[in-house]
Amino acid sequence: MVYQMCMGFMKGDRDMASDLSQEIFINIWNALGQFKNESSHKTWIYRITVNTCLQQIRKEKNKKRVSIGEGFDLADVPVSPAEENHLRLYRAVGQLEEVDRLIIMMVLEEVGYDEIARVIGISDANLRVKIHRIKKALKELLQYAE
């Protein structure tokens, strides 16, 4: 669940998602004493995941990244069709607004709408409208990428 969320926020970058997942589990471990049972453990972990991902995005905006693979042709790396579809989806999700990314990643993880609404802090009705709009935007992004 954490890794999948990170993949969405990191636009399909597996290495970044893996590193960020590790950081999140460290944050969860360090915050265990602060858990107050006001929500489910899963909701609490989602909240930590989202906050850590958003912090990482803010850090990345302030840095200029240089790829160590410059000149390296990714076409040489074998990727299965299913893997390519997942990467296309993560790239499309990465183009969404931060809150929309969070929502759709939770939908993809099959989190219940009531729990998503609690994590985001909106009503169920508002969430359903947002999900409809997000799916429409993703469909357009995926069609554009073909």
Cα(first) to Cα(last) distance is 28 Å
- Kindly state the percentage of residues in helix: 55-70%
Low-confidence stretches: none
- Beta content comes to under 5%
Number of helices: 7
What is the total domain count?
Answer: 1
- Cα radius of gyration in angstroms: 16 Å
Q: Which descriptor suits the 3D outline? A: globular
Mean pLDDT: 82
In total, how many beta strands? 0
The CATH class turns out to be Mainly Alpha
Oligomer: single chain
Largest sheet: none
Architecture per CATH nomenclature, i.e. the level-2 architecture = Up-down Bundle
CATH topology: Butyryl-CoA Dehydrogenase, subunit A, domain 3
Output the structural class: mainly alpha
Order of helices and strands: HHHHHHH
Question: Could you give a quick summary of the protein structure above?
Answer:
The chain is mostly helical. The protein contains 7 helices and no strands. The longest helix is centred in the last third of the chain and has 22 residues.
